[in-house]
Write the structure tokens for this entry.
Amino acid sequence: MTREQYILATQQNSLPRIENPQLYPVGIYGWRKRCLYFFVLLLLVTMIVNLAMTIWILKVMNFTVDGMGNLRVTKKGIRLEGISEFLLPLYVKEIHSRKDSPLVLQSDRNVTVNARNHMGQLTGQLTVGAEAVEAQCKRFEVRTSEGEKVLFSADEDEIIIGADRLKVTGTEGAVFGHSVETPHIRAEPSQDLKLESPTRSLIMEAPKGVQVSAAAGDLKATCRKELHLQSTEGEIFLNADIIRLGNLPMGSFSSSPSSSSTPRQTIYELCVCPSGKLYLSPAGAGSTCQSTSSICLWS
């Protein structure tokens, strides 16, 4: 017997022996084990359902590497193809349509485009409704396709029409509530130009003169009561081959006095001198102008 075996034999004999030892099982048993298996099974079913729903959503929404459905993410930005609906506000810098199709913004009610400054204050608004198109801004401009020429502009002080030609096609013409300032008014070729004031006076004023010209037609001025031709500092010049004064009452001059019961009516002649001057002279009196033409009218 070796020394080590002797030592081990003596140590085993010296230890007290325990009779009937109690064994404690290690693990989960009973109802705890059933609950654990149930929760594991429920978690497994939930994961499978979530995975199936994720795959279905990816398939329905057409998720790809470039984007989702009609939405494509490119280097220049986001590209939408087809009809898209936005339920919340959309904040973008620029919106462009494809080269071969127009850009259509559609709404069941109104389409409103707002512009704000850096402080969030509203600076411009364009509203397209079913009854009207309204623009609220400090200045509204309509330019040509090149953007160089302003065709129409409006602000609080004035309205500017920059077109080469302003054409009004309405049957009633153009109606102005106040004064109109323009250097030239003309009609279209082969059309008449008519300036009319049905219930009030028609006044044309200019600091250096008003010129009314009809190159290939007649010039007619009609009024209901009186027509005044007045020159405060100059003269009224009538230059024509024939000057007619129609619908004038004609009378006869008699040297013998009429009866006392009938009042005597004085007759004057309207004399025209070769220089073009007009004057009145009593009928029958000697004319002071040579080669004059006279018209009799009532005094």
